[in-house]
Design a protein that fits this description.
Blueprint lengths: L20 E6 L6 H8 L2 H4 L3 E6 L3 H9 L5 E5 L2 H7 L8 E6 L5 E6 H10 L1 H4 L7 H12 L6 E4 L5 H11 L10 E4 L5 H6 L5 E5 L2 H7 L3 E6 H4 L6 E6 H6 L1 H18 L5 H8 L9 H8 L2 E2 L8 E2 L16 H13 L9 H8 L2 H10 L19 E5 L2 E5 L15 H7 L9 H9 L4
Parallel strand pairs: 1-2, 1-3, 6-7, 6-8
Antiparallel strand pairs: 3-10, 4-10, 5-8, 5-9, 11-12, 13-14
């Protein structure tokens, strides 16, 4: 698939590459595409890099191998650099991201049996789009009254966007995801088989594993994460901070290759080529026809329903998608607090600045001659349609960013946001957290 026009070697203009032979990790998901396309189209080679992509079995593998230097960098969940840096989970290692790989791309899918129970419990709620968790709440209450054990839902990793999106959706209807539902971790490629074998009742995962269940008639998708939070951040490319410090030019060259790959992928005429490339056994290893279901701008919720137009289900470059907004990092940290994953006081703004690195992204974009925002943060949940970010006289075309429940997020007041959203399981006193996050303004 290499484009011969892209294969000329390019060296960073302020120094030589510190390392040229790299191994980068991916998980078999549609949103590993920018890494695959940079490899397949010769873009890594263009920037002087010899890259091997390593298909990993789980997000835990990705975290551990990057932390211990077995991988130079990797496709990661947006919350993983945060969690690894501040010590949520088994590994603590300062980790940074300078590149957001995509927006949207996830969905919540349930078994056909549970879907029918939800329709029977509240047909009016199930007829509305986006589908709320109201009908699921009624099914949960029915099971409680009958003395049945909680239903089991799966997500891909405790600090995944999928976990926070599913919890956000459930909590909006009064479902306590820590008490009313049993949540477990399953690697993305194993979701469909576990749904078919009735080990789980539903899951939240990225594509193509929702479309796979739908096309096989095994399950039905209820809601996409675009509908939960329009144009929400999904995956990032991340490296250890010490790796960046030792290889800043190499890191910039990687980001430049990924920028070019993402721009190429967001041209509609190239989407079938993207699907063909990532479908290969070395990458996603899924039927190309299944990957195309979402990649080409449509989405199918059930096998008996026609595909629906959804041009923003996968966004790889548009709407400043690759910019590592620190407001995104701050929102993820509020969810980590909300569900008791962070158990100590933390200066949220400082942590976001340490981990999300728009300065590195700006450097790469400037070297490419591209315009780039000077802002590090933006409000979330305040735009119902496409809008223009006017930044020092430069206009950036942005997408809608609404949360489906109407909440908004001001990155200047992350602790205040926590007081407004329902159902907190925080293990940190809000007063203590407020003092810590306001002491910089004193």
């Amino acid at each position: 698939m290499a484009d011969q026009s892209t294969t000329a070697t390019f060296a960073p203009n302020d120094g030589s590459l510190e390392k040229t032979r790299l191994t980068l990790g991916i998980i078999p998901l549609t949103d590993c595409a920018s890494l695959v396309i940079a490899k397949e189209r010769g873009l890594f080679e263009k920037y002087g890099l010899d890259v091997t992509l390593s298909r990993e079995a789980s997000w835990a593998n990705i975290r551990d191998k990057v932390a211990f230097g077995e991988l130079d960098g990797a496709h990661m969940l947006a919350g993983m650099p945060i969690a690894t840096s501040i010590g949520i989970g088994a590994v603590q290692k300062p980790t940074i991201t300078a590149f957001s790989m995509n927006l949207n791309g996830n969905a919540i899918t349930v078994s056909n049996e549970l879907y029918q129970r939800m329709v029977d419990a509240d047909p009016d709620a199930m007829a509305k789009r986006p589908i709320s968790a109201q009908a699921l709440k009624k099914v949960v209450d029915q099971d409680k009254a009958a003395g049945k054990p909680p239903m089991t839902f799966a997500m891909v990793f405790p600090v995944s966007t999928h976990n926070y999106e599913m919890r956000y959706w459930m909590a909006s209807a009064g479902i306590d995801p820590d008490r009313d539902i049993r949540l477990i971790v399953i690697p993305p490629p194993q979701m469909v088989a576990n749904l078919e074998s009735r080990n789980i009742d539903g899951y939240c995962v990225g594509e193509p594993w929702n479309a796979h269940a739908v096309s096989a008639g095994i399950g039905r998708t209820l809601i996409t994460n675009y509908e939960i939070w329009n144009n929400s951040p999904e995956k990032v490319f991340a490296v250890n901070r010490e790796w960046h410090d030792a290889h800043p030019n190499t890191h910039r060259a990687l980001v430049q290759a990924l920028i070019e790959a993402s721009e190429w992928m967001d041209q509609p005429e190239n989407r079938e080529g993207v699907a063909s490339a990532i479908a290969q056994p070395a990458y996603v290893d899924a039927p190309e026809s299944v990957i195309q279901m979402s990649m080409t701008g449509t989405y199918q919720y059930g096998s008996d329903e026609p595909p629906q137009p959804m041009p923003d289900f996968n966004v790889f470059s548009r709407y400043a998608a690759n910019y590592p907004w620190r407001s995104h990092a701050k929102w993820f940290m509020t969810q980590m607090y909300r569900w008791g994953q962070i158990d100590r006081g933390l200066d949220i703004s400082k942590a976001a600045a340490d981990i999300y690195r728009p300065d590195i992204y700006r450097d790469a974009m400037t070297a490419l001659g591209r315009n780039v925002p000077s802002l590090d943060d933006k409000t979330e949940g305040t735009h119902a349609s496409e809008w223009t970010l006017d930044d020092q006289g430069t206009a950036f075309h942005m997408g809608s960013d609404l949360f489906f429940d109407g909440h908004t997020f001001d990155p200047k007041e992350p602790v205040e946001y926590l007081t407004k959203i329902p159902m907190n399981h925080m293990s940190v006193d809000l007063e203590t957290l407020t003092k810590l996050n306001r002491q910089k303004d004193a």
